[in-house]
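INTERNAL AUDIT FORM
Audit reference: QA-55
Scope: verify that the stored structure record matches its stored sequence.
Auditor: D.O.
Record contents follow.
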Amino acid sequence: MSVQTAKVIAMAGKGGTGKTTTTALLIKYLVERGLTPVMAVDADANANLNELLGLEVDTTMGEIRDRMKTDTPQGMTKSEFMEMHIAQAIIESTGYDLLVMGQPEGPGCYCMANSILAQVMEGLARSYRYMIVDNEAGMEHLSRLNLRNIHTLFVVSDPSARGVLTAARIADLTNSLGVEVENKVLMVNRVPQPVPEALDNHVKEAVAKPDRKFGGYIPASDEIFDAEMAQKSLLELPEQTEAVKAAWSVFEKYLN
């Protein structure tokens, strides 16, 4: 992006690691610390960040892209059509907004739609203090959104040897995407207490490269499990919840 005022924070990790849960806890941290306004972008094809925030989604970017091909009215450019509908798709909440990417691209060329989207995101970045992007493992959306400068990439793993190894590989994907990342930070979710020595050894090996950092362990949490089962917003979790405190201590290191 040629002009960018928002600090871009990206989340990545394979499915099932609690990446989206960690994204919700990050939004909670930024809002409660007054580090607003925040734009949250759910760029995972299996979009469910809105559910953890207690929000309803009416329109996704995937739907707007598809409608642009056939529904653009006469007298309106495709760029105008996209910009209008993206503005309508933004879900506004207290201290933060949410934009959902939705379904992946189908057959055909989406080059124009992605180019317009990148321009719109560049404009949005000037209006927010932080832009949080919850990615699927491949992180291709960072390129589509033209987000080439990432302040912090939080790579989330589950407490397994394969999970930690996969997280390390995901951290390396930014190099092939041509994305500059100031901080690549590994977080390990749902960790039993005390932390198993074998897991700790795998983590130390994964962050041995000089461009990787270890953020911390987030303990397994009955409170988070209960909130998700009851379909309650994670923003309502008490700050003294152990998993919340652990996550926030990681965020403090890199966002202040």
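Auditor finding: record pair retrieved intact. The two ends are 23 Å apart (CA to CA).
Action required: none
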